[in-house]
Amino acid sequence: MEIRRIADEELQKISVPEREVMAKGFYTRVNILSSEQFHKAAQVKQEDWLLKIKCPVLIINGDLDLNVDAKIYVPKMAASLKKNYNKKSNIYVLHGINHMLQQGKTGLSEESNEIKETINPEILDIIGKWLYNLESF
Fold first, then answer.
1. Deepest of 3, 45, 87, 135, by most Cβ within 10 A of its Cβ?
2. Residue 101: left (phi > 0), alpha (psi -120 to 50), or beta?
């Protein structure tokens, strides 16, 4: 696995304390990048699907989401929603929320097995209020 070998080489270039802090999140991303699912998705013609949606959109992302990195994807999604503006569309980035919409500490998939909540109650509240305020579009 070429990506894993390169990742190992790059980690060796940083100090041991930094390596220990970075390793788990780093290897989670390496595993995603080296997965068959990722390679299949990368071969699909990329389109901006948000431009095609005509109804209101609610996007909820967490800052611990290692699959859909909020720093990368939220600005892109916000730009798309702005082009296809629907004043009832909203984007939320919530602190401490992982890909499974649970309160977490690291965002690592191993952690989600230990988390007792199915979905964070704050998210359920956001969804409920958003739906209530939709009325009609």
1. 3
2. left
